Amino acid sequence: MYIQAYIGSLAVLAAALIWGTTGTAAAYAPNLSPLAIGAFAMGFGGLLQAFIAKRSIQKYWRNILQQRFLLGAGVLSVAVYPLAFYSSMHYAGITIGTVISIGTAPIFSALLERFFNHQSLSIRWVISFVLGILGVALLTFSDNHASNTTDTVTALNKPLGIILGLVAGATYSTYSWAAKQFINQGFDAKAAMGNIFGLAAFILIPSLFWTAQNLFDEARNLYVVIYMAAIPMFLGYVLFGYGLKTVSASYATTLTLFEPVVAAFFAAILIGEKIAMLGWVGIVMIFACLLILSSKRN
Questions:
Q1: What is the C-alpha separation between 191 and 169, in angstroms, rounded?
Q2: 42 Cβ partners below 8 Å, 6+ apart?
């Protein structure tokens, strides 16, 4: 059991590493709407997941459809998450958008497990929650910018980006929690993830009609969205779904704290994004929040 949990943890970490490249990749298509990037990446990535899981889906889909609340919560969250996540990075910057979106997810996961699975909130969680909130506040009031991007983070854009990051964190934790509930009930991970992501694709892909008018203006736009769909959104979530077999949703989302580290590294090296000292203090506080949460193995 320990070996399985270890391999599952490594799978989640590998997914986080892949996901950490998304913000930088999106920055190479600055004229493409973040809504289009999110819808294309998660939409077609979701179809790929459903395709490779078709046999498993055929086996479990009737039972999964009977649990409309779980399925509906998962599908709606998957549909909202990429739109909020990529918009957050667009408005607040890659590092801040990723830190807020991923850094707040374990807090939301713990709340979901508290209210729906009746797991208690410990003193550890309360301390981590306070640190997380203070970290978000410091990021909000810090003065940062991206020197090599066309969209400079402004005083008006950044709060909007942070709010969208909180929405992304809430929806990310919700579909992770929903998938974990199906897995805990004995459903195959591929069936759970394939159903949730496949159905969400039917919401996301049609939205491209309104958001992706300039998708074919430049070849690099296509390169970016194809990479996003095939690698982070398909391969990344296959690894994440495998990890959910052996670790809890809150622990899995805590392990993804590696994603903001990777995102910050690439944003600084390749995009030239700069964060003010106050912002780095906020990021450190959010990481401290996550480390406190992860100190207890779930």
A1: 23
A2: 78, 79, 81, 82, 197, 200, 201, 204, 229, 233
Give the residue carrying structure tokens 């391969």. 235
Measure Cα distances from 169 to 72, 123, 190, 270 in Å.
18, 22, 23, 25
Distance CA 250, CA 176 (A): 8
Residue written as token pair 């990075």: 89
- How far lies 267's CA from each of 94, 106, 111, 139, 259, in Å? 6, 23, 31, 16, 12
**E strand spans, 182-289:** 273-274
The three-state DSSP-derived secondary structure of 15-60 is HHHHHCCHHHHHHCCCCCCHHHHHHHHHHHHHHHHHHHCHHHHHHH
Q: What is the DSSP letter of 122?
A: P
- Cα–Cα distance measured from residue 271 to residue 278, given in angstroms and rounded to the nearest whole number: 20
Cβ burial 263-290 (10 Å sphere, 16+ → b, else e): bbebbbeebebbbeeebbbbbebbbbbb
Asked if 18 and 211 count as a contact pair (C-beta separation under 8 A), the reply is no
Q: How many CB atoms sit inside 10 A of residue 189's CB? A: 21
One-letter identity of residue 217: D
Alpha helix segments (H runs only) across 53-188: 54-65, 68-92, 94-103, 105-117, 123-141, 157-184
Q: Which two tokens stand for residue 196?
A: 């949730």
Dig out the tokens for 168 from the structure.
Answer: 């992304």
Quote the CA–CA distance of 151 and 155 in Å, as a whole number. Answer: 12
Tens of pLDDT, residue by residue over 233-280, are 889 888 888 887 787 766 776 677 778 778 877 887 888 877 778 878
pLDDT band at residue 152 using 50, 70 and 90 as cut-offs: very low
pLDDT in tens, 18-58: 988 988 898 888 888 999 999 999 999 889 889 988 888 88
Radius of gyration, CA atoms only, the chain: 18
Decide if 25 contacts 266 (C-beta within 8 A).
no
